[in-house]
């Protein structure tokens, strides 16, 4: 489609609950982003986002992602019947790409259905239609795992605290596992605070 915005570089003007405003060439673009991307954006910093424009009769909506894996998975997820951009964004907000890939490859529809808005039938359809389409490097990264194990005491404490707040276990474990991989020395309080920014 002519005029499609595939990549956007500009200054972050505002960061909201589900979107950010990026100023490029004197124009402010509102870009809907998954929680991990939003968490890395800072007002007045320069943002570089891979984008997808979804055009409908009543709106042109721009979706932005900080890495190629997320946008590739977004494209795959939204290619499935009944999975629109909003649901694709919800999945990528709840879990990192390799965990979603692991759920698909491991036929773990329960993991996918743990995300708010994803029903049992939709989760089963994702598994059925995407099992042979997951990129090889994501398949390798996933190790075909479905529910990350949190071994540390600090991680378990954070998991239990978040479960007490009503979040779903599969989502919580996926986020805590990713945060601990990035910072093995994080305290339980730090893990909880960072997790709350990702769990929607």
Note down, in words, how this protein is organized.
- By secondary structure, the chain is an alpha+beta fold.
- Helix content is 48%, strand content 20%.
- The protein has a five-stranded mixed β-barrel.
- The longest helix has 14 residues, at 169-182.
- The chain is globular.
Question: Helices and strands in order, then pairings?
Answer:
Layout: E1 7-15, E2 19-24, E3 27-32, H1 35-40, E4 46-56, E5 59-65, H2 68-77, H3 85-94, H4 97-105, H5 109-113, H6 120-130, H7 136-142, H8 153-164, H9 169-182, H10 188-198
Parallel strand pairs: 3-5
Antiparallel strand pairs: 1-2, 1-4, 2-3, 4-5
Helix pairs in contact: 2-3, 4-7, 8-9, 8-10, 9-10
What spatial form do the alpha-carbon principal axes imply? Answer: globular
Query: How much of the residues is beta strand, in percent?
Result: 15-25%
- Portion in helices: 40-55%
What is the C-level CATH assignment of the largest domain? Answer: Mainly Alpha
Mean pLDDT: 86
Q: Please identify which CATH superfamily of the largest domain we are dealing with.
A: 5' to 3' exonuclease, C-terminal subdomain
Q: What about the largest sheet? A: 5 strands, mixed, barrel
**Number of E-state strands:** 5
Radius of gyration: 17 Å
The low-confidence parts are none
